[in-house]
User: Fold FAD-binding domain-containing protein from marine sediment metagenome.
Amino acid sequence: MSKSQVLIIGGGPAGSSAAYFLAKQGIKVTLLDKDRWPRDKVCGGGLTTNCLPVLEKMDVIEQVEQKADFKYNGYIIHSPEGEQIKASVRRRSENGLSKQIPYCYVIKRDSFDEILLNKAKKAGTNVLTGVEAKKVEEGEPSKVLTKDGRTFEADILIVADGSGGPITRHFTKDLHKGSAIAVRGYYSGVKDVGSVIEFFLDDELGFGYGWLFPLGDGRINTGIGLDTAFLKRRKKNVRQVFKEMLEKPQLKERMAEAKLEGKLEAFPLRMGFDKDAFRHNRVLFVGDSAKLIYPLSGEGISYALQSGELAANAIVEVYQTASPDYKKLARYEIECRESFSDLKYATRLQKLMARPKVQRFFYKNSVYDENLGQRATGMLEHSSDVSTFFNFRTIAKSFIIAIKRKLSLNGKDTEEAQKRAKSVSQG
Ligand SMILES: Cc1cc2nc3c(=O)[nH]c(=O)nc-3n(C[C@H](O)[C@H](O)[C@H](O)COP(=O)(O)OP(=O)(O)OC[C@H]3O[C@@H](n4cnc5c(N)ncnc54)[C@H](O)[C@@H]3O)c2cc1C
Assistant:
């Protein structure tokens, strides 16, 4: 039997970030991951600027820079009608304002996750890969039984086994509530791949979307993500919807000679803010295990990194006194509710956007008004505050923009706005 102060199940960004910040503070921490490393994770590998603060604290930016497959310098969101919102990459600073930065990264998860796990290991984490947790007996201490017949004991457990992991499932009754599914493929020979990451909206995707992330030399990481209930109502499977998506006018020509490398892979996304998903007694949930996925984009890496750090900070507090004060773990829950409240607003906005009329209203306004367009894309990278979309000022301004748009003589202003949008170079 092996005993540690903290046992982490899962070595993705959430588990590695927690392990790094704990080990750095001298906490005895063991991390188990079921896979042999390096391992891939079905993902777009798109890092938003929201990841950068934790990556900087972990001192891994240089390695990410070296291993990144691509550095993107902007965004395009394509509407079903072929309109485009274009924006630059922005980073939100601590005072809440956002600033343009030259680029951010697309990086394959085998490289990215290995950088993080190695960093946690170097900081002093006892990392065991190829060890699958099978069962948990919660207690003081808790016990985790593995597939290979070993037992690990720890005072505090961090569950970081991702969307649909077995240990998360052990604690969660509503595993599939608020869930989505995504499918991803790598393609080569794609035409007109610029230096921006692209998103595609379509009625067939409900409030989901398709993405196209460049990897260089005409290679891309592409896929779609959509709500499982919506998919069920449509009586279609996710691969079928994806293939139909590639036939849409915005993609058909560009994908005409593209070749799929390997196979399409699907993976669940556990999303929808849940204030009770962060802690159960001395068990903390981080990353996807805590439902920390941004519903407007399916982005979860930045939340995984941040929640890992918050969990570590709360645990360090526990051991500040001569005998551990486990009540201090409540700090983790409180901080998560505060730090990730944007997920609540994003969930509301996502529900509104599920109505095609609202989506089109918002979309047309964003194409017409450059400032609103930047704010809309800013939601994807968290450089704009999603809660402000619900304040009176923004709602009133939206109607003013809509009136201006409609009143513009013979659609002249609209044409200019369209021209302006289309003239922003893809590269
Ligand atoms: C198709 C798709 C595209 C996506 N694209 C993006 C994107 O571009 N950008 C973005 O920010 N987010 C994206 N996401 C979301 C992102 O992948 C997740 O939010 C992120 O990986 C969460 O990190 P995590 O550490 O919580 O979990 P994971 O990264 O899932 O890590 C969980 C780890 O736990 C291990 N594990 C599981 N079960 C056990 C067990 N029983 N015992 C031991 N170990 C176990 C696994 O091997 C794995 O290493 C995408 C998701 C999907 C499905």
